[in-house]
């Protein structure tokens, strides 16, 4: 049967609530984590399948369900989550991957912690934010990127990191709490050092969300042999995310309405050529707001954001530099946290 109930992510088997221990063989009757999860409501639908809010022993979990033919996409995400110690307060909390056997075949389930505040785009569409909260959101994302972009070595090899996200945007950031702590999610297009080793299949460049693509991706000049080039492209996308956040940050009690990047310069469903014309040829960038100068954090961030947008990849700040810069803005202390 194609419905063997061996856990797809064997690491889970050892800690299964059913008491199954690793290496006991492939008993068809073994329960795996997917058997303990009930679907509750659908959160989102994409090309690969759907994301569901589910419950496991009464506690909420989120499950990204990959339908037939999306195995590759699931495997990429699973590989990123299990590639090392990808545990960080600002990275989505991965639980396990499993196969769910149904009468019509198999679904692959990527099981994660459920974030009840949902994605950052929805959150800032519905709420304006204080500069303190904007600072916390930005610091969360910066910390995640700093962690992802910098590999950590041990004497035995790389422990974690060295990952370019390649699809950074507000829908791929989840809000963890009211204060603005966030996590980065959706590693379906991410690349790691292994992808650049000799013999690895060539890395595809034209992937990700068109609107957030860096100039060097749009015009094909990115150095596809280097992981770092893709990390730098992430920083361009982060610049656009910064802009979305700054628009929703209040100064004197007022904020601008949410816009997606280049909302005034591109149609709703632009082609790559449309975007290349605007971003690369005309060098258009999102509009800046005078009012940001009234707040220390917003003015510092608006300058960093502009650096992230520079057409030349070499001119962009690293996540590490932005993180340090944000640490100099002592909101927490001023506000008595
Ligand atoms: P896709 O590859 O289709 O973009 P994502 O992993 O980004 O899939 O998930 C799609 C959407 O589902 C996200 O934008 C977010 O709104 C929601 N979502 C994803 N994971 C979670 C989670 N763990 N908790 C709450 N909502 C989630
Ligand atoms: Mg997504
Ligand atoms: Mg995705």
UniProtKB/TrEMBL annotation:
Localization per record: Membrane
Lipid bilayer topology: Single-pass type I membrane protein
GO biological process, one term: cellular response to growth factor stimulus
Recorded GO CC terms: plasma membrane; receptor complex
GO molecular function: ATP binding; transmembrane receptor protein serine/threonine kinase activity
Highest taxon of the lineage: Eukaryota
Chain ranges of the Protein kinase domain: 37-329
Major enzyme class: transferase
Keywords: ATP-binding, Kinase, Membrane, Nucleotide-binding, Receptor, Serine/threonine-protein kinase, Signal, Transferase, Transmembrane, Transmembrane helix
Primary site of residence: membrane
UniProt entry tagged with the keyword Signal: yes
EC code: 2.7.11.30
UniProt record similarity statement: Belongs to the protein kinase superfamily. TKL Ser/Thr protein kinase family. TGFB receptor subfamily.
UniProt name for this protein: receptor protein serine/threonine kinase
